[in-house]
Task: structure prediction
Amino acid sequence: MKKVYVQTTINGEETEFLCEPRQSLLEVLRDVVGYTGTKEGCLTGDCGACSVILDGRPTDSCLVLGVEAEGKDITTVEGLADGDALHPLQKKFLEHAALQCGICTPGFLVTSKALLDRNPNPTEHEIRYALAGNLCRCTGYDKIVRAVQDAAAEMQGR
Result:
């Protein structure tokens, strides 16, 4: 199958890649570009493990074709940290023990970042609603919600 040339921005870096028209963005990110932090879960858009921020919106990368990334801005979990400095969400997930096996964690992190980017002071209800498309089979959601609340407070200087 003939490959398609795609130009996009991933984690603030101009990126070019070749992909087959049938390849999902998840497959391209992991296998072509090398961003393996984005995890494969269900491949049906039900679990959120593959969530990325696509033009400011949390998106299941398993449901988007790689060719659809043309000209788009993508943020993966690798794009949250600033060099060796973890993003406040990453720090708070660690502090609150809001992760166990780690498969779902990248999706929760990028979905939470997208929420805080558009709503820096969400209520608990708004956090739970925003994270409803992300499933975790190992831990309860309370620790995740508390980590997001704590990160929001830190980011606002409270």
Observations:
- The chain has a mean pLDDT of 96.
- The first strand starts at residue 4 and ends at 10.
- The domain at 88-155 is CATH 1.10.150.120 (DNA polymerase; domain 1).
- The chain has five helices and five strands.
